[in-house]
Amino acid sequence: MTTLDERHEEAVKAQREESFLLAVPEKRFLRWLAARLPRWILPDDMTAVGVGAAIGVAVAYQLSNDGSGWLWAASALLVVQWIGDSLDGTLARVRGIERPTYGYYLDHLVDAFATACIGIGLGLSPYMLLSVGTLVVVAYLILSINVYLESFAFNRFSIGYGKIGPTEIRLILILLNTFLALDIIGLDFDIAGLDMTVFDLVGLVIAATMIVLLVGRSFRNLRELAEREPGAKRR
């Protein structure tokens, strides 16, 4: 019988499944970049950069109440946040200095914090209702929790649902920021008497999609687990 400690070790070392759209080119670029960073830059430094940039994104979105020019700052900081968030683990692997349990814990803790920062920042901007931003954050965190549970139960770590992962979501945000900053698309919509923006619409679509994917994946996981561990029969 597998002990809890052994299951924990398997979860930490679970193989990452790269199913999302940009996973392969992103991995190649990150490894290329990690190999060229100065030796004095450590993985934890990149983690700190990612956290700082996530806070900066939230501040930039909030400051966009004073002018759409802050959307350019938000987009630039999203790129910095992606580099810091994605490069810390890659840098450790390239240099052979991995700390599996430490990295597993820190990476997921930082991901949750960064997601909350960006979602709440959007909700404090004039481009998204706070309720919609909160809904996106909650949906994303529930999906993340399911990923962590899968890594424990199935020894696999598939963070992408379908072809959409964190990098793709960042690109969607940057694209919307650009369109709004350049006034390429209209801002306000009226749906069923509610005043909404393009960010609200996209946020609701993303949240709904995540919830549907979560439900489908959860049922599949429970069916597989039920086959492994059959329940008691009714008498």
Sum up the structure in keywords.
235 residues, mainly alpha, Four Helix Bundle (Hemerythrin (Met), subunit A), two-stranded parallel ribbon, two-stranded antiparallel ribbon, 70% helix, flat, disordered N terminus
Please provide a written account of the structure.
Helix 3 (43-63) runs parallel beside helix 5 and helix 4 (70-95) runs antiparallel to helix 7. This protein has 235 residues and is mostly helical. Mean pLDDT is 84; it is low at 1-11. The two termini are 28 Å apart. The protein is flat, with a radius of gyration of 20 Å. The chain has one domain: CDP-alcohol phosphotransferase transmembrane (TM) domain (Four Helix Bundle (Hemerythrin (Met), subunit A), Up-down Bundle), CATH 1.20.120. It has helices spanning 4-12, 23-34, 43-63, 70-95, 100-124, 130-154, 166-181, 198-228; strands at 15-16, 156-157, 188-191, 194-197. Helix content is 70%, strand content 5%.
